[in-house]
Amino acid sequence: MELYHFTEFPWPYLPPDDTFSSMRVNLPNRVYDPVVGAELYHSYLDQYVLADELGLNCMINEHHQTATCLSPSGPLQMAILARETKNARLCILGNPLANLSDPIRCAEEMAMIDNLSRGRLECGFVRGVPYELFSSNRNPTETAERLWESIDLIIKAWTSHDGPFNYEGKWIHKRQVNVWPRPYQQPHPGIWTTGGSDLGHACRTIERGFTFAMFLTPADRLAEMFNGVRDHCRVKGLPAPADDRFAFMPLVAVGETEKEARKMIEGVFWYVTHNKAELQFRAPPGYMETALYAKVVTGQFTGGRTDAIRTKGIDFFRDNHVAIYGTPDSVVKQIKSLYHKVGGFGHLIAMLHAGDMSYELTAKSMTLFAKEVMPKIKHLGSVSTGFGPLAERKKARPKTKTRKKAKSRA
Amino acid sequence: MREIRRQIVKTLGARIEVVRQGKARANRGPVLVLHSEDAYESELPLIDELAEKREVIQFRMPGYGKSSLPDWLRTIDDISYLYLDILGQLDLKKVSVLGFSVGGWIAAEMASKSCERLQKLVLTGALGVKFGGAYARDIEDIYYHPKEKVQALKFHDVAKDPLADMTGYSQRQAMTVARQREIIAKFCWDPYFHNPALKMRMAGISVPALVVWGANDGMTLPKYGRAYAKHINGARFTLIPRAGHYPHVEQPGAFKRKIEKFLG
Hints:
The complex is a heterodimer. By secondary structure, chain A is of the alpha/beta class. Chain A contains 16 helices and 12 strands. In chain A, helix 1 (about 35-55) packs parallel to helix 14, helix 2 (about 75-85) runs parallel beside helix 3 (about 105-115) and helix 6 packs across helix 7 (about 220-235). In chain B, helix 2 (about 75-90) packs across helix 3 (about 100-115). The interface of A and B includes residues 140 and 297 of A.
C-alpha cells in the first residue's frame, strides 16, 4: 500500500460562522491576510518535505475562490516539491481538465514535473467540483465530455514523438501539437481520476488502466463503488483490477494516546465543519445526474450527504472509517478493517492536516503515522503488472500472502 | 378548448414537436408561440384565447416535449435555423411570432436572418443581446443567486410563479423541469444568455415589432427592454405594471389587450 500525506492549504482565520453563507465562490478575499498567508504557504510546504523524509508520498490538489484551499494551481506546488523532495511519489488530484482552456499546456506542465522529479509523478485528471464552474465559467453540461476528451488528447500528446499532429475534436481544437518535454516515465505517468457516486465514470477509469480515487466516503459506499467496478470487470470479462487501481482519502490522526489523537483529529475535522457552500453553488444545472438535480429543483434535496455528515460528528466519521485516528495500533487495526470491508485498495491518502493545526502537532501525527503505522500496513494490497515504478517496486518486494491472492485474481 | 393537433417535423437532423390550435384564416396569418425557459406558455389560457381568431402554432424547443436534442445543436442561433426551416416546410406565411424570454431570443435570431415569412414580432422579456459594457450585468445571474432571490428577480408577486411550489411533483414532473433547466444551461451558460453577434444583426429585422416588458422585471430591467426596442427599426416598447419577467403570466389581461391591439 502506498501512503500519502495531504493538506488542502487552508486559510483557517475565518470571520464568525454566522456572518458568511459560503466558504466558496463569494467569500471576499479581504478575509485573507497576505503576511500571515505567506507564512502558511511555507509551513504547508514544510509538511510535504517532512513527508518525504519520513518515507510518505505527497498528494496535492487545487481549488478556486475558497478559503478551504489556498492553492489555485496544483502544478505550482508540484513544481516546488519536485525539487524539494527526493523519493516521494508526487500525486496531483488533480488537474481540473474540464475547466482548463488548454489541456496541452497541462500536458506540458505535467511532463516537466515528471522530468524534474525524475519520474515521480502520479497524474490525476478531474472534472472539477461544481462550485468552480462559477470561477471557470465552464458550462456544467459539458464537463464530463470535456474531461475525457482532454485526457485522450493529453495521452496522445505525451505518446507522440514524431513531430506535430492536429486535433479538431468536439470541445477542443489544437493545431500542430508537439509537446516538449516528453514525460520521464514511459509511455507516460500513471493517470488517476476521482469520483463520487457515478459508477460509470469509475468503471471507465479502471477499464482504461487508470487509478480511481474517492474522498471522505463512508466505508459501505466505498465498498459499493469499488465492488461495483470489480463486478463490472468480471461481467465484461476484463482482468480483475489490482488493489493499486483504487485509492481512498480519509481524515487521519495518530497520537501517542487516544486522547492526543482525538485532539489532533478535531483539528483535521475543521475541514468538514467549515466546508459549507450555498446549494446553488453545489448544484448548477447539468453538473449532477438529472434525477438528483430534479430533487434539488423540487426542494427535496437541501444539503445531501455533505451536510448530513457535517452534522453527525467525529464518532460517526470514525464508525464509517472516514476519520481514522487513535494510537498507532488502533490506526493499524482501523486501516486493516477498512481494507477488508471494501475488498482492498492500494493507496491511502491521509489528510493529516486542516484548519489551524500547528506544524508541530501535524508533524507529530505524520511521524507516528510513518514510523509506527506504515510498516504494519505497507504490505497490504496487490499491485498491477502494468508499467511504471509501482510495478517495478512489486518485482523487488518479497512475496506475501496478499500478493499471492492478487496473482490468482489476475 | 379548441382541438389540439400535434405533429413532429424533421429538420436538419432534429425532430421538432409542433402543436397547432384554431383554424387557419385566409385574412389573418397564424401566430407562432415560442415558449420561455420553464415553458409556462402552453398551459396559459392565452393560447386558446388567441386561437379564437387565428391559428396558433407552438414549436417546442429542442429537448422539450417530444422534440429531440441532437448533439450538434449548441446555440440558440442554431435553433433559429431549425425554426426557419420548419416555417418553409409547413409553408406558413404572414406569421406573427410571440416570443417569451429565451423564446423571444429565438424569435429575434429568426427575424434577423429572414423576415420573408413573418408579419409581426412580439418580444416579451426577450433575452439574447448584450447592450452594456464588459463589467455590466445586463441579465442577472440566475445561477449565482439562491432560489428565493431568483424567484424575486423574475416575479413581481412570487406567488404567481407557476413553479412556486413543486413539493407535490411526481418524479416525472420533477424530471421534466430539471431536464428543461439543464437544456437552458447548455444553450445559455456562456456567453450568458446572449449571442455577441445579435446586437448588430438586429438591423436585419424588417417587420413591425412590439417589445413588452414587466415594470418590475429584476432579471432584465426595463432599460434592457428599451435598448432591445431601440435596436429594432421602428419597434415600439410597452411596459406592464405589477409584473416581472413574465408579464403574460402575472398580468394576463393587460398583456392580452396590448398584443391583440398590436396584432390587429
